[in-house]
């Protein structure tokens, strides 16, 4: 993405957020647009595809604190008129003075030294504007070099067991890629693009604007530096098409709901030989009807009867592997937790979490006459509950 793109495009408007939006608000807005505009949901819809690309481009800048700061500062400087004729210092005759850009920086700092680099997020003022201005001998002027491909984000839903144990799934993506028919040069097979005669293959046209020159992409070749006379019938001269590709993604054991997995180099292909972007996979995990999860531990609630709680019992419970038997001691209260070690989520170091079983003593809502007689007899034979302090307070109140 060129610096000129930053000046011409309002990324906040593209995502539909305010300039003061938080990172979470930006991420939420992008995900909604990405879902609505994704090529899978809008096949053969060029307008949706372009909006999807624009949203991804805006998100790539605004979601990165460093890039967002540089973007805001650049647009603020241009919006304030700092680069218009007549914006120079008094007595400058309306000419543009580069020293005005640095707010009083002098020496090496004003020339794009260490001080300027710190002010503009380590990029350096001369680097930010190198693709826009060329002002004298040695100033950079040429077509863009290799560009890194954009990152791609998608979402995958896993079953609970798949997330706990880990799994490998094929993932189909529809993303822009180089046309196989023309190998990305946009020309009909058997022909080759020719160098643009207007910009002489540089992709840029320079024009004098008073004391400095302004460079912009060549309109004849759209900044590519080459002209295609006979366009490729597959991509119609663009050099790129939307492709469906399938990759196998390994989800490690213990992947959690909401976790974001990064696959380096599996995003969109780079431009002009640049490296591919990254693929980010947002994981959603379906809840299980029995098991819950707390970190590396699995959780399970098991109902037991009043008699089992009083007398104790051997409780056979399921796990994600084979069932285990846990001993419920006599006199176990409701809510007590029992632990089956090593029956939880596998950890990276080879160990596993535990299965935590919570017993829930069930009190029957209705009993037979025989059961009632037995309970009354049981109540007479058991000591009363320890309510000494409570009864003492009641007597004091009376």
From TrEMBL:
Its name, as the record gives it, is Chaperone protein DnaJ
Provide the GO biological process annotations.
DNA replication; protein refolding; response to heat
Q: Which species?
A: Actinoplanes regularis
Cellular compartments annotated: Cytoplasm
The answer to whether the entry has keyword Zinc is yes
* Binding-site list for Zn(2+) 2: 196, 199, 218, 221
User: Which prosthetic group or cofactor does it need?
Assistant: Zn(2+)
Classification of source organism: Bacteria, Bacillati, Actinomycetota, Actinomycetes, Micromonosporales
Quaternary arrangement and interactors, per the entry? Homodimer.
Domain note: The J domain is necessary and sufficient to stimulate DnaK ATPase activity. Zinc center 1 plays an important role in the autonomous, DnaK-independent chaperone activity of DnaJ. Zinc center 2 is essential for interaction with DnaK and for DnaJ activity.
């Amino acid at each position: 993405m060129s610096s000129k793109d930053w000046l011409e495009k309002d990324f906040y408007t593209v995502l539909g957020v305010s300039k003061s939006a938080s990172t979470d608000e930006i991420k939420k807005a992008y995900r909604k647009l990405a879902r609505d505009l994704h090529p899978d949901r809008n096949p053969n819809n060029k307008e949706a595809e372009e909006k999807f690309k624009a949203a991804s481009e805006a998100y790539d800048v605004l979601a990165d604190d460093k890039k967002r700061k540089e973007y805001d500062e650049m647009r603020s400087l241009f919006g304030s008129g700092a680069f218009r004729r007549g914006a120079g210092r008094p007595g400058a005759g309306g000419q543009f003075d580069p020293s005005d850009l640095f707010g009083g920086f002098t020496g090496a700092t004003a020339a794009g030294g260490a001080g300027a680099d710190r002010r503009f997020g380590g990029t350096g003022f001369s680097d930010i504007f190198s693709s826009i201005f060329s002002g004298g001998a040695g100033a950079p002027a040429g077509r863009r070099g290799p560009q890194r491909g954009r990152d791609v984000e998608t979402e995958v839903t896993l079953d609970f067991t798949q997330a706990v144990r880990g799994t490998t799934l094929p993932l189909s993506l529809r993303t822009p890629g180089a046309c196989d028919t023309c190998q990305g040069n946009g020309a009909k097979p058997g022909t080759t693009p020719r160098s643009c005669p207007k910009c002489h293959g540089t992709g840029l046209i320079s024009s004098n604007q008073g004391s400095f020159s302004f460079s912009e992409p060549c309109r004849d070749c759209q900044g590519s530096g080459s002209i295609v006379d006979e366009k490729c019938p597959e991509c119609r001269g663009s050099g790129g098409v939307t492709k469906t590709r399938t990759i196998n993604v390994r989800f490690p054991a213990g992947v959690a709901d909401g976790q974001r997995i990064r696959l380096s180099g599996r995003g969109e292909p780079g431009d002009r030989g640049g490296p591919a972007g990254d693929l980010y996979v947002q994981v959603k995990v379906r809840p299980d009807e029995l098991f819950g999860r707390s970190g590396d531990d699995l959780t399970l609630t098991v109902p037991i009867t009043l008699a089992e709680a009083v007398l104790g019992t051997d409780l056979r419970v399921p796990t994600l592997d084979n069932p285990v038997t846990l001993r419920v001691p006599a006199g176990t209260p409701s809510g007590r937790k029992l632990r089956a070690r090593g029956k939880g989520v596998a950890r990276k170091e080879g160990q596993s979490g535990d299965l935590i079983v919570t017993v829930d003593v069930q009190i029957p809502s209705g009993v037979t006459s025989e059961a009632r007689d037995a309970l009354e007899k049981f109540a007479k034979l058991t000591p009363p509950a320890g309510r000494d302090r409570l009864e003492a307070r009641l007597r004091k109140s009376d």
